[in-house]
Each structure stands twice: as structure tokens, then as C-alpha cells.
Amino acid sequence: MTATHDTADVLVVGSGIAGCSAAFAAAREGADVLLLTKAERPDDASTDWAQGGISTTRGNPEALKADILEASDGTADPDAVDVLVENADAAVEDALLGTLEIEFDGSDDGEFDYTREAAHSERRILHVDAATGTHILRPFLNHVDDHERIEVRQDTAALKLITHEGRVHGVLSDEDSAGHPIFAGATILATGGIGALYGRSTNPADATGDGIAVAVLAGADVADLEYVQFHPTAYDGEDPFLLSEALRGEGAVLRNGDGERFMPDYHPDAELAPRDVVARAVATEREATGEVALDVGPLEFEAEFPNIASTCRDRGIEGDEIPVAPCEHFLCGGIDVDENGRTSLERLYAVGECARTGVHGANRLASTSLLEGLVWGLRAGEDAAETEVEPRVVDTPELRDSDPALPERFAAEKFTRLRRTMDESLGLERDPDEIARTSAVLRRLKGEVDAYVRTRTARDLYELRNACVTALLIARAASENAESRGCHHLVTDDSGIAEPTAED
């Protein structure tokens, strides 16, 4: 074992809203917290990319619960949803309003300007323009960075969990070529999503499924990994960016290549149908008519959504119609956790997008991701600190870094192959036979990568390994689920026509 090491009462891996919430809550309970993050600046975290807002209950938790269950096609765990809605408003009041003093948009009379998004039955979403994630995360990072009980290490990756006798004792980080041990009384994974596994994603480029992979390799349980959500309205061009659901909530409509508004033909709620329904409809109309555009003509676009409007103009998009296409957005499943974020491994927690709380089921309701990260982050941080387990130094394997470095483009080229495979077989619609073939391709790719990882500790190789592990888990979950629900939509014949669901 390496002679040098670090210790912390609570170790948090990840610096989005879930990681910051966990660190904040643990430190408030008196724990000494070490927060590791691959990010070097806020926009490396998925939270910073979140546009629409954060849902509240507006005093009616049962109504929000009903909307979450409806959007999930009845697959969300009601008990988990209860945890979310019963703690939602208190968490927002505590952390975002009371501590960070976030200035959410308000109307002229001083009340909050709640907006509505798809599949919500009422206006209940707090927002700052359409850049809510940025306006939450940056103050949160500043607060965490200034806290006397929290140490933040940027540009640092967790390569492997340290386990001994069925318990997690911390991580090996990439601060040393042999793996730098960090021992902790509790370890909280808050590593975000999987966008880097797909060719088009609204996630940061380093969203490589790290937390899911290291947890599974240590023996943790996962669930619902087949449910990969695609956002229906991302810019249809190079370097896609999200066109917030709030645009449709305020009246923007979708038009096909013939200029026709088509969503009323697909769902009674039209543009405000659940995301999976809208995404498949957009894909169908693009194939039939050549393109789909989001028509923001019904809005005061420049005045109501200045950040999005500015992004469009910077890209040379003029006029009211913005070309859109579905884009990978959010993983509804992940590391299986309980109401406090505890995983199946002792002293390991997971929160945020890498975790599967059960709230989302087969399809996530808009503007619940920031809320879930906040609620479970606070609960996990508090639970981890209250347990008061002392960090224990145990023997750890040294990672090997004995072979010459690989060519600079090696990992990038393997990622290209991985993304092409995922796009073709594990996207919006899936052919069961193709999923089986894809699993074989992914196993071969993972085998190739494992051979290199065994003798090298480069971060890009470990990210590629993590992406391959997570991709295989998604393929396996998809192959084991023969039912089309929400984000997991199966094609059942050679015509390419998808089997109808209850929502179609």
C-alpha cells in the first residue's frame, strides 16, 4: 500500500447539486468532508447545464406525486415519490432560499414566477430565466468551497472504491499513478450521468458513468438502467444545446417539415405530453418530413428567455423556428439506493443521476432531477455524518502504470466506436435482436479496454473503462426487459414500427 494517504469523515465524489448538497449537510452535522470532483469549472457538472428549473409542490405534494407517477407510466416507486414530495419544499427553503439566497424569477407583485413544463398539471417550477442550474450551482460551489469543514479538490477522479470485508472504506484517486488512497467513514457517489456514451447528449463531455461503474465493480446493486431518457427538443446541429421544456410550457409548439403542428395527433396534452412520447413523435416526424422545428413565435422569446435566445443568435439561428431533434438527456436508473441514499454496500451512498431512487421509474418528469439531487443529497449527507463511523486505514492494491502511454487518440477512437454502437441499438427505439448483438460488441470492446487498463492508470482510460461497463449494464437491462414502458421502447417487427404503448 502507498505510504501516503488522506482521511475524511465523509468523502463526496462529484460537485453537482447532489454532491454539494451532501457535502453541505454532512458538514452541518459536524463531519469533516472531502469533496473530489473531476471538474475544473462549474460547467463541467451536469447541474450547470440544467435549464428549466426545480420543481416544488406549492403546498400540494399529492398533486406533484400524481404527475410523477403519470409521467413514469405508473412505474415510479410510490414510497420513493413520497420521500421526494414530502421533503421537496423544506429542502428548497433550507438550502436554496435560506442558505444560498437564490433569487428565483418573480412576478411584479413580488411572488415567485412559477412556470409549467411538460406533464405537470400546474405551475410549480421555480426558475432563473432558463438557466436555473447555473444560478444554483455556482453559489452552492462557492458556499461549499468557503466552508471550514469542507475541502474541495478539483481535477481529481476516483478510479476505484476501496473495499474490505464487504464494506467501502474510500477510494483510490488519480492523484498518484499507483492510486492515491483516501479513507473515509462514509463515501457518497454523486458522479452524474452517462451522456458521453451517446453521440448527441445534453450532458457534459465527462459524463462517463463513473459512479455506476466503480460501484458495480465493487459489488453494488443497480436497477432500471434500461431507462435512458432522450430530451425531445435539443438543437438539431453540431454541438447540440437544450431548448428548455419551459419554452413549450409557455406556448412554443412543434412543427414538422411541412409546417404542420403535429403533437395533438400523438397525445391529448400535445407539446406538454411526457418526454418519451414527445421525443418519439419528433423522431417519427423528422423521418417522415425531413425536419422538426420548435416554433417560439407564440412567445416573447427574446424577453422571456434571453439566455436561450442569445445562444440561438450566436449560432446564427434567426427567426422563430429552431430545428430540433431528440438527444440523450438523463438516466432514470442507476445505483440502487434507499430513502437515505444508502446502497447495498455498507458505508457507500449514491445520490443524483448516478443513483436509482425509484422516483423516476421508466420516465422522468421535467424539473425533478435538481429536486431529487437536492433532497437525496441532503438526506445522504446528514445520514452519513450522523452514523459517525471513523475512517479506517486498510490495505489497498496499487494500480499498475508500467506500460508506455497509449497514442493520444486511442481513448477517443474507442469512444467513437462505443457511441456509434449505443446510438444504433440503445437509443429511442430498440430491437431486441439488435440489443443481443450489441451486447456482444460491447463485451469485446470492454475486453480490449480492460487489457490496457491493467497496466496503465491514465484517467481517459479509466473513463473509457467506466463507460464500457455502464454501456454493458444498460444493454443487459434492456435485453432482460421485454416490455415497452417509458424510455425503453421496443420495435417488434421488421417494418420499424414501434409497438404502441398506453400513451400513444
Tell me about this structure.
The protein is of the alpha/beta class and 504 residues long. It has 14 helices and 18 strands. The chain is globular and about 65 Å long. It starts with 5 loop residues before the first strand and ends in a 14-residue tail after the last strand.
Oligomer state equals: single chain
Query: Could you tell me the strand content as a percent range?
Result: 15-25%
Structure annotation, total helices: 14
Could you estimate the helical fraction of the residues in percent? 25-40%
Distance between the termini: 57 Å
Question: What descriptive keywords fit this protein?
Answer:
alpha/beta; four-stranded antiparallel beta sheet; 18 strands; seven-stranded mixed beta sheet; 504 residues; disordered C terminus
